[in-house]
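[worker-b] picked up task from shared queue
[worker-b] task type: protein-ligand structure
[worker-b] ligand name resolved to pyridoxal-5'-phosphate; SMILES cross-checked against name lookup, match
[worker-b] sequence length check passed
[worker-b] input payload:
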Amino acid sequence: MDEEVLTTWLEIDLGAIQHNYRLLQAISQRPVMAVIKANAYGHGIGGVVPALTQIGATWCGVARIEEALEVRRFSREIQVLVLGYTHPFWVEEALAQDISLTVFDPQTAEAYANQARGLGRELRVHAKVDTGMGRLGVLPEGAVDFIRWLMALPGLKVEGLYTHFARADESDPAPTLKQIRHFDGILETLTALKLRPRWVHASNSAAIFNFPQARYDLVRAGIALYGLHPSPETPLPSSFRPAMALKARLVSVKVLPPESGVGYGHRYVTRDHERIGVVAAGYADGIRRVLGNEVLVHGQKAPVLGTPCMDQIMIQLDGVMGAAPGDEVVIFGRQGEGFISVEEVAERWGTINYEVVTNMMARLPRIYIDPKDDEENG
Ligand SMILES: Cc1ncc(COP(=O)(O)O)c(C=O)c1O
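[worker-b] inference finished, payload out:
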């Protein structure tokens, strides 16, 4: 679609995602499972999956079976692991679409095995161990017995074993080292018993950088793939490139007289004659309804006045002479010399970059910058 006619949109730089993926491969020296749950962290499965398969990505991870099925609309080849819970109802579909599921309790594992056996098939599964996240997974003390039992269960093929770190992005390594010790203990026993599954994995983005000893057979990267920092304590190297920008059009510009209220609750009142712009983006696009937002117009920062409305924000244009209806406004991303990072926005909204990008609403068209337009890809 011609960008000229768009009012409010997300621009997704697929070349940046490919570039970041290659950096993660080079740094980890491992196959990289691209974590593309939550619509590829808001970037859009339909754009991200073809871009990843184009450069030979072999694994991706999603949270739900519905997301795995969505992935299959774009790639038959990429291996897909559902990281969250899947109801046994879905086993037939998972088999038909060659999707791997996570198992973390005997009852569900048996239900999966029964379904698969009934169909004369073997379901691919990864066993999950809870080494200290306090979320999904069998506890370390029961892990070896669980895996031994799983491996003997007809109907399942245990191809993977994994855990997840709770604090790999923090400056104190102790909690993650403890998780690694638990995991390594289990692996040692399984290896001695010749029960070590083919794919052992643990690292999220932060751990790829902070705990090289925990890369095992595969690393699982989400946030870094999109060029966003795992945390303030674990910033990405400057070679990574953010992939998402939120953009909208300036749709109205007018001068309001002094003492004019702007927006619901008149949370801003003009002091003088002021040039007020209306931008077609609001909280129903994913902008947080707080005071103190800023945007870029002509590459310069302009304050958002009052609180965002559902579909629009009002901005102060006195510092940006020449701004006119139809101009592009950047809520986050780059514009000329100006840049507003997702991290800066997250701080204003009292949250983390993960939440900012995953909260970009479905109504926003995702406009993909084709990798072949990217300088690196020729
Ligand atoms: C099980 C699992 N692995 C990997 C990831 C990717 O984490 P990150 O985005 O920090 O790389 C997530 C995301 O939360 C996850 O839940």
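[worker-b] attaching auto-annotations
[worker-b] DSSP finds eleven helices and 19 strands in the chain.
[worker-b] releasing lock
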